[in-house]
Design brief:
There is one protein chain. By secondary structure, this protein is an all-alpha fold. The chain has one domain. It is built from nine helices and two strands. Helix 3 packs parallel to helix 5, helix 4 packs parallel to helix 8 and helix 7 runs antiparallel to helix 8.
Length: 299
Amino acid sequence: MANERRGGGKLSLRLFVSFFVIFEMIPNQSSVAMEKRGSTLIRTLVSFAVLFGLYHLAEYGIVRQNSAVQFFLFQFLFFGSAWFLGNWNGGKGWSHWGLGLGQFRWSHLLVGILPGILLYAVPYCLALLTGWERIGEMPAWTQILSNGWTFVSGLLFSSFSEDLLTRGTVYSLLQGKVRPVILLSLSALVYLLNHIYRLQEGWETWSYLFLLGIVLMLPVLRTGNLWLTGFLHWSGNSFFFVSHSLIPLSSHPGPLTSNQLFSVWMVLYLPLLYFALKKLKLGPEPTHKGQLATKEVVF
């Protein structure tokens, strides 16, 4: 069973990479050839509606049905549709949303992983040190790795698809048209509302989701694409999954709940991330209004 999980995880990672390469090799139609009547706003809203439906069908498959087949099927349909919708919107494929291969830099991967882990690791360690959360019987690391590989690789798809849905669409529509603070707030609000299964949980959950939406949008403003924020998002989700799902935890009453502690940490984390991103050279800035595309590679 462990070998099957590792094999499934490796396969999904290969599929993720191969999927991008194959679609990038398809010749893009020019924006004139793909031009459709209707405003940019209407095309973006239609694109968002299609991608929203596919994203949540994938989430429903894994969360409600525990079906990896349904999850990966609709994730593939999501990214395939995003490529065609990107062409329809601007003739750029995934580059229109900020995920073109020509926009990728290895620095996005290397720089994104550590901040993503720290985002969740700091409040997790504080909760353990204060005794607000306690680890139960620790499973063997070999068991954690074998059980987590498939799920962590699946999170690669869900993290990037959520970034494209809640950040790529908003940024492609409004970049250069509104102030950055408005862009951050609108994207964070879309990210919050996208968590349809958690909207009934109230202000505490809404607050930390909104703050998290701002955290994940900052790298997009700095780089002009989704790669850095995608790797930050993925590594953070992976750490959270391993530390909270594969390692048993018990919660104990404290002055702050885990969500409140996470929100306080994000308020401190935001300026640190902002100044770190400002100092680092992470790729070209966006140059076209309403698009994340900065450079393209022709295969």
